[in-house]
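A.,

Following up on our hallway conversation. Structure tokens first:
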């Protein structure tokens, strides 16, 4: 575990643990969060170009609201482009969780339902059955965050080994999109992999969970959101992230979060990213 100071993000000070070295699974990153608070903790979820899995390890349950009034407790999965208004809440007392971010290329094999998860919050036991509860108990019984990271990696690797991998062409296009900040044209990607635009659109949607256009929008939004959180103005964030203008950025922020750029700039979920996810592209 890389030792860190508690990170103050809005209200509570979170203790954050990260692995000492990169994991063996490409496209998988992890961080551990814990806190002892006198009042309930609420955190708005900002959509990210990764599928998120949360293992609840604390004394009090974490409740994740999908923004439409439906709630999930315990171990949950948030698909790509989680619904605007999605929120995680920890009860008063102590909470702890291990959060895993999965590239959608990996999530397709690990979770087995990438296309069905997009825009949803789902209980992990709906996807893994009894394995979800068994792994949660093992993680709770572990003596250290390092042990938890190792256990989670083994569980994910086991699932990946027996899961169905995405097409190599789809994986290539996703990597190109991320590397290009969501600004690579779909027609160009189709030509690079030797597919028609229609075929790429269909395969990408069925395996990643979003259309190529929507995926590119999410990647571009993520880039802009982190610039806003870093203190850049909306105009500068829009220009740096490939938006036509500030109003274009504002529309995307509203679409993905239901909030304004100013609100997103102060989101606790983004404030801790440089500590929790230091290798984030």
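Then the amino acids I'd put at each of the 281 positions:
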């Amino acid at each position: 575990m890389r030792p860190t100071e508690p990170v103050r993000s809005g209200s509570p000070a979170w203790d954050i643990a990260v692995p000492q070295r990169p994991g063996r699974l490409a496209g998988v990153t992890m961080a551990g969060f814990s806190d002892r608070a006198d009042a309930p903790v609420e955190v708005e979820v900002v959509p990210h170009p990764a599928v998120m899995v949360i293992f609840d390890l604390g004394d009090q349950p974490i409740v994740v609201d999908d923004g439409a009034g439906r709630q999930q407790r315990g171990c949950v999965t948030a698909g790509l482009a989680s619904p605007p208004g999605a929120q995680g809440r920890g009860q008063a007392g102590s909470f702890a969780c291990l959060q895993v971010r999965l590239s959608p290329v990996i999530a397709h094999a690990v979770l087995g339902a990438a296309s069905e998860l997009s825009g949803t919050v789902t209980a992990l036991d709906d996807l893994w059955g009894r394995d979800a509860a068994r792994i949660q108990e093992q993680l709770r019984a572990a003596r250290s965050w390092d042990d938890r990271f190792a256990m989670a990696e083994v569980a994910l690797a086991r699932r990946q080994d027996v899961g169905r991998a995405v097409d190599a062409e789809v994986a290539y296009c996703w990597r190109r999109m991320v590397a290009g900040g969501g600004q690579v044209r779909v027609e160009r990607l189709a030509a690079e992999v030797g597919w028609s635009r229609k075929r790429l659109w269909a395969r990408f949607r069925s395996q990643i969970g979003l259309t190529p256009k929507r995926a590119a929008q999410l990647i571009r939004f993520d880039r802009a959101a982190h610039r806003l959180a870093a203190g850049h103005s909306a105009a500068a964030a829009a220009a740096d992230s490939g938006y036509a203008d500030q109003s274009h950025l504002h529309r995307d922020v509203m679409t993905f979060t239901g909030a304004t750029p100013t609100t997103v700039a102060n989101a606790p979920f983004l404030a801790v990213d440089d500590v929790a996810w230091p290798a984030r592209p």
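The longest strand covers residues 28-37. Curious whether your intuition agrees with the design.

B.
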